Amino acid sequence: MPPPTAKPHGSTTAATSFFSAIKPPPSTPPPPLYTILFLLLLVTLGFYFLHHHSPTTTAAADFLTPPQQTPLRFREQFLSLSTNATVSAYLHHLTLRPHLAGTPASADTAEFVHSHFRRLNLDPRRAAYRVLLSYPIRSSLTARFPNGTAVALSLAEEGAKKTGETEEGRNGAVVRPYHAYSPSGAAHAEVVYVNTGSEEDYRQLAALGVRVKGRVVLARKGGELSRGGVVRVAEREGAAAVLLFVGGGGGVERGTVMNGMGDPLSPGWAAAAEEGGGGGERLGLEEAEASGRFPRIPSLPLSFEDADVILRSLGGQTAPPGWVGPGIVAQRVGPGPTVVNLTYQGEKKEVTIQNVFAVIKGLEEPDRYVVMGNHRDAWTYGAVDPNSGTAALLDIARRFALLQRNGWRPRRTIVLSSWDGEEFGMVGSTEWVEQNLVNLGAKAVAYLNVDCAVQGPGFNAAATPQLDELLFEVTKKVKDPDFVGATIYDKWAAMNQATSIERLSGAFSDFAPFLQHGGIPSVDLFYGRAEYPVYHTAFDSYEWMVKHADPLFHRHVTIAEIWGLIALHLADDSIIPFNYVSYAQQLSKYTDELSNLLDGSTISLHPLVSAIEQFASAAKEAENEVKQLREGDGRDGLTALKQRALNDRLMLTERGFLDADGIQSRHWFKHLIYGPHGDYKSKLDFFPGIADAIHELSVSTTMGRSGQEAAIQHEVWRAARAIQRAAYALRGHIFVP
């Protein structure tokens, strides 16, 4: 709904009232001489004010001019504009129907968001892409037990609203549980329970004499492996199919099993917007670069209740200690004697997805962008994932529109983004970043992401380190919704014994293309635990949100306030509030951890240590420069030029961590400090190239230790060069001083 009409200070209505009080009645026209004198007085006053007026010293001007509006005043106003009921109404509307990407229901949510931005006069835009998504056609699972009985397992969610099977959710029903991009196939075989499906789990099975080749494996999600990772390990072990369940009961978890990000038929470049390609290059489904991203064995998600039926019927070897989870009784691992008959038929097809934007153009630096983003598509109703974040984004848009009515214009441009296709592998955001990579690389200040805004109690933040200080400052200004008299910072610090900001090494939400491909400083915010009971199930509804996660929508309002304040600082502060001293300190800690891990090897970390020293020196110089410019006058043209030059260096420094060749075997990921690594067991959640080389040292059978240590040393040098590039960017010199 549009915000209520508000008259700005000093409106034409007020001015007309003021001048009507001194104007003579129209029924008695003034004598001609008075008219001439009055006009002469106006001309004289106009000439005087044109050449001598100072708004800080003229009492009459102070009377007619609205109070001085500053970035601080606008931030205070932003906080005062919260309304829980409005956020609740947004979420209720967004979750009336399931809205899987590529369906008419999803297109309706895009129209809802676009209309909201348009009603607020926020310059709405769209970006459409033709991409390959995946939908189920039919699936079945029957278990046959040793006593000759059989049961057809429902593959559905008891107590949830009606599920749809052949319409992919197009008829308004919840899509049947499935794994996106799973190949169609069938398997009739004994079952083996493989715990979480890790390589170590298979080694334990092998030690028991249990083989999974040609069998259907039953795995419990909850280890370090992703959903797709579980399927790929099973495929390498020779399994015929995978059944994947989540312990604890509730619903059935849908999700993607595709490897990588973005449209699989346009890897590294943006998908064409028009149906039929529109001139854009498309890979064929059978080309290795596309087909290699999909598993080759079928998989299905399973409810805990159905998994429990199978688990209790297994014979064979006794389950190793620790192979249990919430409510799981796994006495035996098989194989069999229970046999399952699994069939899955799906289709991969090209559909249109739509990203929706609102653009608030900057007044002084319109070519600098602060991008805020949340994805809109959902596996089902999406109350938590992702529309708690969408509701917060719509509320921020409403507040920004009200600020504009009060005279606010951001210094830099703010872009509010509603992504599509995230659940299939961050498709919408990846295509947009690939399409706009050069402009974003030159002009994007930061990307601020909120996916699942509210999952339950407890504030969490992840960010690149130069944003730590800003996060602390903002959370000190926002009240904690769960504790009277406390700020978010107070309780956050108490809960963690210190403020704990996670880093963005994983590729699990829309920040990944911005940071890990584009080198743009990023933030990710949410309330609650990393996983919650209705994740990707038909129970992720408005009703669940009201009953369990945020009954009064206080946490939604809080996330909107933190998110919006960060954006206002980045858009309005004369000097971008980045502190690279924090980044240097973080890099030093990483090097210490790496040193402990590599103790006893011949690998030298001196290149890293030296590069970090250079970076720390540049960060300290930049910090001093920021202080000097803030203490200066700030109104002369030279100072403005210095600020602009410094801001460019602060903005571009993160790009220095990118490497054109990317991470070995995953070249799309370019960031050498933060990015996903190939070994899920790795103790390093930083330096992904080094982490991968260390993993190869432990598993390689084709390269000797000296050769593998040389590969690690090469990755150390690559990371050191990236840090040096960032230091040069921060200093702004093309010649080393």
Automatic annotation (TrEMBL):
It is a single-pass type II membrane protein. Residues 355-543 form the Peptidase M28 domain. Its EC number is 3.4.17.21. Gene3D superfamilies: 3.50.30.30, Transferrin receptor-like, dimerisation domain, Zn peptidases. It is found in: Endoplasmic reticulum membrane. GO terms for biological process: proteolysis; regulation of meristem growth. Its cofactor is Zn(2+). InterPro entries: PA_dom_sf (IPR046450), Peptidase_M28 (IPR007484), Peptidase_M28B (IPR039373), TFR-like_dimer_dom (IPR007365), TFR-like_dimer_dom_sf (IPR036757). It catalyses: Release of an unsubstituted, C-terminal glutamyl residue, typically from Ac-Asp-Glu or folylpoly-gamma-glutamates. Residues 603-730 form the Transferrin receptor-like dimerisation domain. Keywords: Glycoprotein, Hydrolase, Membrane, Metal-binding, Metalloprotease, Protease, Signal-anchor, Transmembrane, Transmembrane helix, Zinc. One of its GO terms (cellular component) is endoplasmic reticulum membrane. GO terms for molecular function: metal ion binding; metallocarboxypeptidase activity. Belongs to the peptidase M28 family. M28B subfamily. This is glutamate carboxypeptidase II. It comes from Linum tenue. The lineage of its organism: Eukaryota, Viridiplantae, Streptophyta, Embryophyta, Tracheophyta.
